[in-house]
Give the backbone structure.
Amino acid sequence: MNKGARWLLPAVLLVHGLLAFVYTQIIPVDRGPDEPHHLLYIEHFERFGDLPRLTSAKTARDDRDGSIAIHPPLYYAACWPLYHLVRHWPHERIQMV
């Protein structure tokens, strides 16, 4: 393995880490571009007891509540019990969890 190849992975990881750090400093925790739609997915679980349906390929949203319908459900199913405990909190506070 040559010297350049040996340093490539650490260099890429360092650049990625720096960019991720800068992103977290610029974008507040609960204000990412798609944060509300991820929360809607979990709220949809709570309200309807099923997965969001892809009703429009153009928007990738469920017409019933606007939740995103293109992501795998395991993460959202794992988040649902926590949401169920805090569902009566103000929406802004839930986004911080």
About this structure: The mean pLDDT is 81. Residues 3-26 form the longest helix (24 residues).
